[in-house]
């Protein structure tokens, strides 16, 4: 794996963490029984995971010749 993979995935993780926290802050869970959005830590981790996976899709691997 090259450096580009880590950079793109890292950007996705950071953006996901931020978006996950913003989701908790502005939308969240009113009753407190939601597993992911009831706590900012859980929401941020889930957002970071999803952001990393999403951005990792856009990294192309070199072709073998």
TrEMBL record:
Alphabetized Pfam families for the sequence: DUF6132
Superkingdom, natural source: Bacteria
Query: This protein is called what?
Result: DUF6132 family protein
Show the taxonomic lineage: Bacteria, Pseudomonadati, Bacteroidota, Flavobacteriia, Flavobacteriales
Keywords of the record:
Membrane, Transmembrane, Transmembrane helix
Membrane-crossing residue ranges in chain numbering:
5-24, 44-61
Matching InterPro entries: DUF6132
Organism field: Flavobacterium chuncheonense
């Amino acid at each position: 794996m090259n450096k580009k993979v880590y950079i793109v995935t890292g950007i996705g993780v950071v953006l996901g963490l931020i978006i996950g926290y913003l989701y908790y802050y502005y939308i969240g869970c009113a009753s407190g029984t939601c597993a992911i959005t009831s706590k900012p830590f859980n929401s941020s981790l889930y957002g970071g995971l999803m952001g990393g996976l999403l951005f990792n899709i856009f990294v192309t691997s070199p072709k073998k010749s």
